[in-house]
Specification:
Blueprint lengths: L5 E2 L6 E2 L2 E4 L19 H13 L4 E3 L9 H13 L6 E6 L14 H15 L4 E6 L8 H13 L3 E7 L3 H14 L4 E7 L11 H8 L2 E5 L22 H4 L1 H7 L2 H17 L3 H10 L7 E4 L3 H8 L8 H11 L7 H8 L4
Parallel strand pairs: 3-4, 3-10, 4-5, 5-6, 6-7, 7-8, 8-9
Antiparallel strand pairs: 1-2
Helix pairs in contact: 1-2, 2-3, 3-4, 9-10, 9-12
Length: 344
């Protein structure tokens, strides 16, 4: 089935409905949070080649992935070897610590300008298509950040800007600041979103729909919880992410989480598909979503995720998934919904 491309938020660029996340590219050492959860460079190259051949034209990285910019360096070496840079809408992120010293992290202007140049060098490219702040910085005024990003766009180093892990109030402040000062505005927000983490639907999804900010969900399979390989009555298998990241297993392995996973498995069985494909297809159909970021450490994982682009969820399946994973609205959303039938 031919790939159907979507607008990058309200921007003119068009991207595939699945985005290849590159966090697991490269073998990080024991000092990195990505130690023993990545793949070697040769496998990374194979995954990027196959993704592009399948129509995935959107890659996402970050300076902090791996260690010392490992993910960006792997992607940069892939472009140098393959010559396929112009086929990719390339996204990366900045914010977390990459250097020693007081200004080695954060979103101050002097940090943003240096971080961009560092990422460009590692990626071996002259421009970043989507440059994103990885987490809002409560210590830096939003107008300082936006002015720096606006200057990067005007300098031709960046095409579009986006945010990640922003509260709704800060996102609205940012959009208002851009409008008031005539600065570049965020065209996307990269946020955690899955069938077991639906908090965005209270505030962020209405903002996305009203103001044309495309949602880029990260962790769409909830660190693999929705892949179907976990069982309510058995501990996670050794070596899996949720066996190592026990606090996340505690977040997802709740009564509602297991109920949601059971519904995902049932729908997958009915459609002759997989839990991963069902979970990704559900997200791709949600309001405001531009492209769903997925990771792959093996070619088999890549192929399993690509299957989601050809999967159409029938109305009955969608109803089953919505009922199992429904978000508890809370106040004042439930009050509004009782009066108007919806909260946003």
């Amino acid at each position: 089935m031919p790939m159907t491309f979507r607008q990058l938020g309200r921007a003119g660029a068009r991207v595939s409905p699945l985005c290849l996340g590159t966090m697991t590219f490269g073998e990080a050492d024991a000092n990195s949070f990505m130690h023993q959860v990545g793949c070697d460079e040769a496998t990374s190259f194979e995954i990027m080649d196959r993704a592009l051949d399948a129509g995935i034209n959107f890659f996402d990285s970050a300076d902090v992935y791996g260690q010392d910019g490992l993910s960006e360096r792997v992607v940069g070496r892939y472009f140098a070897r393959s010559g396929r840079r112009d086929e990719v809408v390339l996204a990366t992120k900045f914010r977390f610590r990459m250097e020693r010293g007081t200004n080695g992290s954060g979103a101050a202007r002097l940090r943003v300008m240096r971080a961009c140049d560092d990422s460009l060098r590692r990626l071996g490219t002259d421009r970043i298509d989507l440059y994103q702040i990885h987490l809002q910085d409560l210590d830096v005024p939003e107008d300082e950040l936006l002015r720096a990003l606006d200057d990067l766009v005007r300098a031709g180093k960046v095409h579009y800007i986006g945010c990640s892990n922003y509260t709704a109030w800060r996102l609205m402040e940012s959009l208002w600041t851009s409008d008031r000062l005539g600065l570049e505005r965020f065209v996307t927000m990269q946020m955690q979103y899955s069938m077991v983490v639906r908090d965005l639907e209270r505030e962020h999804v209405p903002i996305a729909q009203r103001f044309g900010v495309g949602i880029l969900p990260w962790s769409p399979l909830a660190a693999g919880f929705l892949s179907g390989k976990y069982d309510e009555h058995a501990p996670p298998a050794p070596g899996t992410r949720l066996e190592r990241w026990k606090e996340r297993m505690g977040l997802y392995g709740t009564e509602s989480g297991w109920r949601t996973l059971a519904a995902v498995k049932a729908v997958a069985a009915e459609l002759g598909s997989t839990p991963a494909a069902v979970s990704l297809a559900w997200l791709m159909g949600k309001p405001g979503v531009t492209s769903v970021i997925f990771g792959a450490r093996t070619m088999a994982q890549l192929e399993a995720n690509l299957a989601a682009t050809a999967l159409v969820l029938p109305a009955e399946a969608l109803a089953k998934l919505e009922a199992a994973s429904a978000l508890a609205a809370g106040y004042p959303y439930d009050f509004i919904a009782r009066i108007q039938g919806r909260w946003g």
